Amino acid sequence: MHIRGDHVELVVGGRLDVRSAADARTVLHSAVDDGAGDLVLDLSELDSWDATGLGVIMGAHRRAGRCGRRLVLRDVPPQMQRLLVATRLHRILAIEGGIGVDTLPRV
Fold first, then answer.
1. Are 10 and 3 in contact (CB under 8 A)?
2. How far is Cα 74 from Cα 66, in angstroms, rounded to an integer?
3. pLDDT (tens digit, 0 to 9) for every residue of the chain, 107 residues total?
4. CA distance 14 to 37
5. What contacts 24, CB < 8 A, 6 or more positions away?
6. Which helix (H) or strand (E) holds 56?
7. Helix (H, G, I), strand (E, B) or coil at 2
8. Which family does it belong to (predicted)?
């Protein structure tokens, strides 16, 4: 997993899972705490995430809300969009451009 960027926009790549969760949490919390306005997470380079990774995203979302900020997901890969829909988190998280639920392929 790698994260690059600043307190306004971060690009998350690789795998966001139990092995990378602690490092990702540290970077996301620092970005939330050190900035203002929306924090955009560009997920276009993210290969996969598991429940722990999704928990890191939700924790950053809650922390951003407590700091008066908004966490916005950008370029969410289709397989991850399906997970957000299945867990109904697409209704809670801000997703740039939204998710076209009807256009997602069925599995």
1. yes
2. 21
3. 677 777 789 999 999 999 999 999 999 999 999 999 999 999 999 999 999 999 999 999 999 999 999 999 999 999 899 999 999 999 999 999 877 655 544 54
4. 26
5. 1, 3, 12, 16, 53, 56
6. helix 51-66
7. strand
8. Belongs to the anti-sigma-factor antagonist family.
The pTM (predicted TM-score) of the whole model is 0.86
Amino acid making up residue 42 = D
Which tokens hold the place of 15? 């795998």
4 contacts 11 by C-beta, under 8 angstroms: yes
Instruction: Give the torsion sign (CA, 82, 88, 91, 93).
Output: negative
- C-alpha 1/C-alpha 23 separation (Å) is 9
Find tokens 């429940």 and name the residue.
Answer: 51
